[in-house]
Design brief:
Layout: H1 2-22, E1 32-33, E2 36-40, E3 48-52, E4 60-65, E5 71-73, H2 78-93, E6 98-106, E7 109-117, H3 132-140, H4 145-149
Parallel strand pairs: 1-7
Antiparallel strand pairs: 2-3, 4-5, 4-6, 6-7
Protein name: Alpha-protein kinase 3
Organism: Colius striatus
Pfam families: Alpha_kinase
Length: 181
Amino acid sequence: LQECKTQNSSREYCKIFAAEARAVPDFGAVPEIIPLYLIYRPANNIPYATMEEDLGEPCEQYCVTERDGSLVARGTSEIVLKCCTFQHWVYQWTNGNILVTDMEGVGWKLTNVRIATNLKGYQGLKESCSPSLLEQFTAAHQCNRYCSILGLKTLEPAKPKGSKSPSLGRKSAQSSPQIQK
């Protein structure tokens, strides 16, 4: 159940990120987190299982948490850089409360995401990685051209507050989509 909450909540953040990125010229393709479904099979020895789209090929790791607990981007391809930008965006959107840590997939379709959060049960999510990754991320993240295109601010340790869009502070003629609270 928690895996579904983690992946599907990350998917919702990714949809908002995609809407903002598509509104900006020159951003290009945007990653998509595929949905993860929880199914109930009452007659089975293992009554619960998860199900998701078959991506047809072995997954590539884009951003991973290493055994030593550090967060690492695997390469400098466009998809890896945009995954790093998505991480930065979510971190900023949630005022430092959530970080999408692990992302792998095939092409632009992502799966097996994990999160780190510094608040217990934040929006119904439980961390699947160490909350210390939030601090490591602010120190280790190096903004790339896609962070600049979206106008994301250089990361500094944030004081946890409510959530808002990182683009609200930008001077831009474009409007950000708002999620209902």
